[in-house]
Design brief:
By secondary structure, the protein is an all-alpha fold. It has a domain of 77 residues: Arc Repressor Mutant, subunit A (Orthogonal Bundle). The protein has eight helices and no strands. Helix 4 packs across helix 5, helix 5 packs across helix 7 and helix 6 crosses helix 7. The longest helix is centred in the first third of the chain and has 20 residues. It starts with a helix and ends with a helix.
Length: 132
């Protein structure tokens, strides 16, 4: 009996593995899909396309680049501005740029001085409202 149960489990694992490797050749059909009527099929909503990170970041980069030029920021301040405009904190920025938290805070202070602002929210508002 254990040999038969083991064989069945082994065959099921092999079938599941093959459906993962070649899903079109070995389709697993759902019972729920067979019971959908034509009126229900019309109600099925297509999923919204997922935006690639590059597509989402482009407008921010463009706006941040304009802010960097407008306020005369250094290249490193520009990198930090990009992260601040996305709402990131000093610790996250420091980890991404491989610098100390204090270095990020110093750059942030200089950015705020050059832009004449006092908070990250003000920075985000400025970048968001830049035409481009």
């Amino acid at each position: 009996m254990p040999v038969i149960a083991g064989s069945i489990i082994l065959l099921m694992c092999a079938y599941v593995t093959m459906t993962i490797i070649k899903p079109n050749k070995y389709p697993i059909e759902s019972v729920a899909e067979d019971n959908i009527t034509s009126s229900q099929a019309a109600e099925v909503v297509e999923p919204t396309p997922i935006l690639e990170p590059a597509e989402v970041e482009r407008p921010y980069k463009r706006k941040c680049t304009q802010a960097i030029k407008a306020y005369g920021l250094t290249p490193r301040e520009g990198e930090i501005l990009f992260y601040l405009a996305k709402g990131r904190n000093a610790k996250h920025i420091a980890e991404r740029l491989y610098v100390a938290d204090r270095t990020v805070k110093t750059h942030t202070y200089h950015i705020y001085q050059k832009m004449g602002i006092h908070s990250q929210q003000e920075l985000m508002d400025i970048v968001e409202n830049i035409e481009g």
